[in-house]
Amino acid sequence: MNTYLNRQKKVSSLLAREDISLLVLCDREGMRNPSIRYLTGQPSDSVLFIFKDGRTILLPWDINLAQIKATATEIKPYNDYGRTLAQALAKVLAEEKLPAGSRVEVPAELPYPEFMGISQGPYQFICREGGLAAAVEDMRQIKDAEELATLRKAFAITDDILDKIEAALRSGQCTETDIALLIDREARLAGAEGTGFETLAAAMGRSYNIHAFPAYTGAMMPADGLSIIDFGVKYDGYTSDVTTTITRNLNSEQEKMVSVIEGAVKVAEKLLKPGTLTTGLSGAVNDYLEKNGYLMPHNLGHGIGLYIHEKPFLRAKVDPVKLEKGMVFTIEPGVYDPKLGGVRLENDYLITENGFEKLTNSRIIRL
Hints:
Layout: H1 3-18, E1 22-27, H2 35-40, E2 46-51, E3 56-60, H3 63-69, E4 74-75, H4 85-96, E5 103-105, H5 112-118, E6 124-126, H6 132-139, H7 145-171, E7 174-175, H8 176-189, E8 194-195, E9 200-202, E10 220-221, E11 225-231, E12 233-235, E13 238-239, E14 242-248, H9 252-269, H10 278-291, E15 301-303, E16 310-314, E17 328-331, E18 334-337, E19 341-344, E20 347-351, E21 356-358, E22 365-366
Parallel strand pairs: 1-5, 3-4, 5-6, 14-22
Antiparallel strand pairs: 1-2, 2-3, 7-10, 8-12, 9-11, 11-14, 12-13, 15-16, 17-20, 18-19, 20-21
Helix pairs in contact: 4-5, 7-8, 9-10
């Protein structure tokens, strides 16, 4: 059976278990939901109706794109349904003749006035955090064979770009903007949809920012000290996420920062296996950094897939999750100092049956 139909069937079984007749998912400006792409293949801008009997109706804004990319029981133009969620839901409910009292779950992100406009008629409308949409996000934590194959293409393009970045930096000076444009150009030439998020390129002077602001400027690279480049490549919807630190003419304090971050990666890798708690993993790295005199001002890592930051989240003190085979996430320890600059080293990892596989080849580039 088609992969998308299999995923839709799993969601329908969740609806049946909770006696919910209909789940509504929406992907639009201001309320993006990559789960629709996960369930149907439709890249963006659509409303998906999933019924507990297994049927699905997809209402895409771009019907031509959906007829090529998407899989659902029925695919109908959003234009035929008023192009608003309220009108679309009302019309679908009328067409499907759901019995009075049926339970209908709508997106938790809906603004309250919009929910009040939708929740009319003889139905029980449910709008809740941690509902069925969150259950779909949980499903997305474990990557299946097709997802891993797609991700590996993104990782291969990413590694090739990393090599091109290093070659460009070794051949002479360029700007942060040159690096960012190189990444975007090479990604698209290799068949990717583009970058997974806005590239961050920060030479010494701005590398102390966790996420450089602005993302990149006309500053020259390489520069003496510590420079950071953080980017991802999106292939068929799935993104990579890596960070490299470039070093040149470091002082002893900067050398120590680099050494400690490389050590932090080794601490994390020793714990990467099924059953490890994300809190324990993150806590071990934080303890190592603190013993060496540093504090990490962000989480150790996060899941990646159709969205750049998705479950599981690698946090030290909240939301403990056991690592499972098939999870793909980043490990990205970093430390930052306004005078010394910043160091971050980020790679993507897969949890395997007995341990892990390192999926990307980001490294400290020493010039």
